[in-house]
Amino acid sequence: MSTAELLHEGLVPTPGKRIRRGGLHALTGIRFFAAIWVLAFHFGAAFTERAHMPHPITVFLQHGELGVALFFMLSGFILFYTYQGNLQTPRDIYKFFVARVARLYPVYLLAIAISIPLHGRLPDRGELLIFPMLQSWVPPVSGTGYAWIIQAWTLSVEAFFYICFPLLLFPLRRARNTATLWLCAAALFLLNVAIRTPLFHPLMTATWLTRSIILPVLCLPEFALGMVLGALFLEKRSREPDAPTNDWITAAGILPCCVLIASGVGDLLTSLAAVLCFGWSIYRLANGRGWLTNLLSSRPMLLLGGASFSIYLLQALVREGVHRLLSRSHPGLDAALSPLVLIILCCLIFLYYEEPMRDVVRNLLLRKKTEAKVAV
This protein's superkingdom (predicted)? Predict the structure, then answer.
């Protein structure tokens, strides 16, 4: 394509103008299921086992930690889709990091504030690593990543991804050849499966790998695979902007992977099924046009997907709070009500705290930078 055609299609930025791409609404909706899978892993798998539900259901919920891998791959895909062609200057990179701080910190600081009365004390010593999000920057055999708020270990990993993102974006800009991108995707797919990346977490069994390399580096292949899939998606969209995607085929690819995970086949095949399922789902649903895409893009699912960050991060805190309020007077009721309380509360947090605070943080940091530049 000529430069004029590229500009017309929005594939390269005009000077001083940011590329605006349409929202990937189905990928927002799928975030809710990732958060609920993690929630079920923590609070639902044991119940299904006690209730003697079918064994595959229990096994599937026991693998709910795989929802974290889905989040990591989604993050790489969406960031590439959003920022490819938009990080051209130091100012662009500064605005990227401001947006990342505004994305993570308001809800994260709220979670820390809620956790203080539940812990009955302030963070001390090694727990202070939670504030700069450095708690996971240790080998996975360490339990430091679980400091204070257990789920926050993934935010620490995500912060590392954000630091790496502008550096990883540079070589992908030059990989214009589709075959090269598919080769990179295949290599990252095999790497993720071979080292069982979807199963990494703090307090892992000690091996030479988990003793020698910090956790964010070990999780980086998932994020990188998401980025490469994002590059392939944009390349395909530039060639076939109106190419249809059959949602029945998408669902048919997801189902056998879920069955494989639920069958308890071992870490290697579980990792294979997870990486295949998540990569397939993300790539297909990003451009889907059918019943599944419409369902995930519906207004309720967009709200739940938007609230997924709070649902993921606050799940243990809300569970503990509801337990303290109800366990003595209504034994068992707290366990039944806490998921509903969590979802409703997090939807309200998303609408009336998280979204407004993102704007506050962005405006504050960007205005200060602008004012300093003008003063100079």
Answer: Bacteria
